[in-house]
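@channel sequence for tomorrow's demo:
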Amino acid sequence: MRADAIEKVVTYELQLLADFLRYDQDGFAQLLADKTNKDMLTEQKHTKSTIEQSQARINKIDVLYERLYEDNVSGKVTDSFFMELSHKYENVKAELKKKILNLKMRLNELDKKVFHKDMFISAIQRFMEMKTITAPLIRELIDHIEVHETEGEGKYKTQRIVIFYRFVGYIEIPESAFTRPLTKDTRQGVAVSYIPKALPA
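structure tokens (generated this afternoon):
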């Protein structure tokens, strides 16, 4: 996939988003809010579940340590074995506590994520004012772009490009007058076509 082809696709999708925002600002804001909330709730649920699992492991290690201590006192295990295993338990607990701390910090970030959609709208509005795409704006708007393997042969050859935006991730633009196909020449004899299409489930 040529860089100029990707640039045309990115520019065109930004134009679609700008048109959507221009003619249906409430709908655009609602789309971002729904997506942000959905993604946020999914990650929050997963993060909280991971915290609970990690805490359960810590609790289990505490129980195992108590049993190990009792076995050492009663003479069922040697002092060297007790020291070796208890050291492993402490290392695992330390790692789990660090993991829980990082996950809790991530939860705090997710709580603030609701404001990110406003930052994205502001960036799109700047694109509307400039009517062009610049490197700083790309860095502000786009997180990364996935370029998939080519499918088909000859004139039926296709290649899927998925744009992930900062703050909001992938956006599926609703089918409307805004989501019209695009065909643009990138160099003599070569054209790029943009057909809005949802990601596979």
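heads up for whoever presents: The chain has one domain: 3-194.
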